[in-house]
Design brief:
By secondary structure, this protein is mainly beta. The strands form three sheets. The chain has a 15-stranded mixed β-sheet that branches. Strands 10-12-15-17-19-22-24 form a seven-stranded parallel β-sheet, with no helix packed on it. Strands 2-4-6-7 form a four-stranded mixed β-sheet, with no helix packed on it.
């Protein structure tokens, strides 16, 4: 099925909802823009895109705008009805570096029951060329709350290339959770958190390298958990504009020694000399923590916060082994 324009399911006035049911024989959809469930309702109803029973669906391609509010993907199997894309579905947003889309998750207003917006963990493969990636960036009306989750932990991360900002939980009363698998994410800027008692801005990285060109801004309530498993990863800022306000935290867990001991092995990297800034973040109440239980004693002895004058960056991790080993056969 190919629709070059927009498919909008729900998203009229604030008490509207919609449903689109597909025959189970549909295997793929390519659409210009998909807007699923802009608004919450007074009743516990969601706008839905339903794939039917025993669906053969496997690929969803959105070339321009993927926008999901109080909506859900739904399918049926022998165990009943489930929310989410059919397991193993490939999701692509945007086409290429020259034909980018945008990704908005949590575009929702609430009059009644606080909505929960979830994408994942059923995605099999994820690819996106974007101008912006936004999760939990729309303020709910009144005193309501909104919980938004983008869970890609089980997915193969082919590409997440953002020529613009990544924003996660940057408004009041939004609980935003993002989980990325192993792979590389690129962006111009990363913005997380908001100084509000009800706000949550959470990013979990599983050997994920998040390479940011210009600035990383962690406001209060921003938390980044990074699992480092054999290869350097985590937040990697090319520039020097790194800000972590009081109430923002970065937690590093080293699960294994580096596969390549001859190069720096990090869970956090910042451009320029940020020794004083990163060291201060380890003081109580700590904003930068690390768990070294997965490292050998030799690796633990080389762990620290280091500045490389030759490369002009600062990293939290393990410095390379000294000396050079030459093997002649």
């Amino acid at each position: 099925v190919s629709i070059p324009g927009m498919v909008c399911i729900g998203g009229g006035n604030r008490i509207s909802y919609g449903a689109l049911r597909l025959p189970p024989t549909v295997t793929n959809i390519t659409v210009g823009s998909l807007w699923l469930g802009a608004h919450a309702t007074d009743a516990p109803l969601q706008s839905v895109l339903h794939f039917g029973s025993n669906t053969q669906f496997n690929t969803l391609i959105v070339t321009n705008l993927f926008r999901m509010g109080y909506g859900a993907f739904v399918y049926n199997d022998t165990d009943g009805e489930h929310n989410g894309l059919p397991p193993g579905t490939t999701l692509r947003v945007g086409v290429s570096e020259t034909e980018r889309g945008s990704f908005i998750l949590g575009d929702s207003l609430s009059r009644g029951t606080p909505p929960v917006v979830t994408l994942g963990p059923d995605v099999g493969r994820f690819s996106a060329f974007l101008t912006s990636y936004e999760v939990g960036t729309t303020t709910p009306t009144g005193s309501r709350q909104l919980r938004v989750t983008n869970d890609l932990r089980k997915a193969v991360l082919e590409t997440l290339d953002v020529d613009g900002p990544i924003r996660i939980g940057t408004v009041p009363r939004v609980q935003a959770y993002v989980y990325w698998p192993a792979g590389v994410v690129t962006a111009t800027n990363l913005q997380m958190g908001y100084n509000d008692a009800q706000t949550v801005s959470y990013l979990a990285l599983s050997t994920t390298a998040v390479r940011v060109q210009e600035a990383i801004t962690l406001a209060p309530k921003a938390t980044v958990d990074t699992l480092v498993n054999g290869v350097r990863c985590g937040l990697e800022l090319t520039g020097t504009n790194f800000s972590a306000a009081a109430g923002a935290t970065i937690n590093l867990v080293f699960l294994a020694d580096p596969l390549n001991g001859g190069e720096p092995y990090w869970g956090l990297k910042v451009g320029g000399n940020a020794l004083d800034q990163l060291t201060a973040m380890t003081n109580e109440p700590a904003q930068l923590t690390y768990n070294l239980d997965g490292l050998s004693s030799g690796s633990r002895n080389r762990f620290g916060i280091y500045y490389s004058a030759s490369a002009d960056f600062t990293y939290v991790g393990i410095k390379p082994r000294s000396g050079t080993l030459i093997i002649i056969q």
